[in-house]
């Protein structure tokens, strides 16, 4: 019976197809060295995603607005459009602009006209303290204005459009007087 065994040549280890989990034994890869590069690129992509998420969380905390992280922009606060005494149509835009520190977006959305009455709070699904968020956003805008981080021509345009409320108009006018600007 031992002689009945066929003399088949043995394959060397280098010529054996490599089998991976989920891969049939005789499926070949054109170049196995490419896999190492792909694995590293995947790791790099995950690192980038992790860093981006960390910044999304760290920026609102640095701006003293950690609550804004929980806003998932459902737009339920838009229901206050008829009840808002400052006629702000898009409160969620104010929340996002305050979260990311976008002063121009905050002003354009009407953030400097907000009187912080709280009529939008009852519509917020997450029950965020919107008046406080808008107040911090307003103070950040005024700090940026006084530090000169908002271009003068934009401020002039915002004044012409009436985007500064009564509470801030005197501070903006004082800023123009100190910096030698004109308001009309």
Primary descriptors:
mainly alpha, elongated, single chain, 47% helix, 184 residues
Instruction: Give the termini separation.
Output: 109 Å
**H and E order:** HHHHHH
Strand residues, percent = under 5%
State the low-pLDDT regions, or none. Answer: none
Secondary-structure-derived class: mainly alpha
DSSP summary, beta strand count: 0
Helix content: 40-55%
How would the blueprint of this fold be written?
Layout: H1 33-62, H2 91-100, H3 103-108, H4 130-146, H5 152-161, H6 166-179
Helix pairs in contact: 2-4
Detailed description of the structure:
The mean pLDDT is 79. It is built from six helices and no strands. It has two domains: 15-60, no CATH class; 64-179, no CATH class. With 184 residues, the chain is mainly alpha-helical. The protein is 47% helix and 0% strand. It starts with 32 loop residues before the first helix and ends in a 5-residue tail after the last helix. The protein has helices spanning 33-62, 91-100, 103-108, 130-146, 152-161, 166-179. Helix 2 crosses helix 4 (130-146). It is elongated and about 100 Å long.
Entry summary:
This protein has 184 residues and is mainly alpha-helical. The chain has 2 domains: 15-60, no CATH class; 64-179, no CATH class. The chain has helices at residues 33-62, 91-100, 103-108, 130-146, 152-161, 166-179.
